[in-house]
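Colleagues,

For the teaching module next term, I've prepared a clean inverse folding example: a structure given as tokens, and then the sequence designed for it. I'd like students to try predicting residues themselves before seeing the answer, so please don't circulate the second half yet.
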């Protein structure tokens, strides 16, 4: 069954991350409708097989695009890192390496405690190894 223009727009908005109710409001004239009425209409719409299938198909495309973008970004950062090392631009090389690590969530603080508007990071895990940084410890007089 072919979807109507409004149904397609509803599906696209849901796939973009809007709530069912917000997607319904974006696709249909919901002015003057009570929130409960919009919620019920959106719930009925998302429970139609063809609507749900279209949303899943659109989400799959978005996910594939995001994965491709992350992989492409990592590859470009790797190329930049190699160029920076080759030209002796160590600051640029370090930044490229840092960004690659952030892209793959390599740097994860174990804990972070706010002490008098100062963040104290006692340790960070890098490749499963805990590093004690002791950043923010001590006083301003140290």
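(Answer key — instructors only)
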């Amino acid at each position: 069954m072919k979807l109507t223009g409004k149904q397609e727009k509803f599906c696209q908005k849901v796939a973009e991350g809007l709530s069912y109710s917000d997607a319904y409001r974006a696709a249909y004239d919901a002015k003057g409708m009570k929130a409960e009425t919009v919620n019920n209409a959106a719930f009925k719409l998302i429970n139609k097989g063809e609507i749900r299938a279209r949303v899943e198909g659109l989400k799959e495309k978005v996910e594939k695009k995001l994965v491709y973008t992350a992989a492409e970004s990592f590859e470009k950062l790797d190329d930049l890192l190699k160029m920076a090392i080759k030209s002796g631009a160590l600051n640029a090389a370090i930044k490229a390496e840092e960004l690659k690590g952030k892209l793959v969530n390599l740097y994860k603080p174990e804990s972070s405690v706010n002490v008098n508007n100062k963040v104290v990071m006692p340790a960070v895990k890098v490749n499963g190894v805990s590093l004690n940084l002791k950043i923010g410890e001590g006083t301003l007089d140290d």
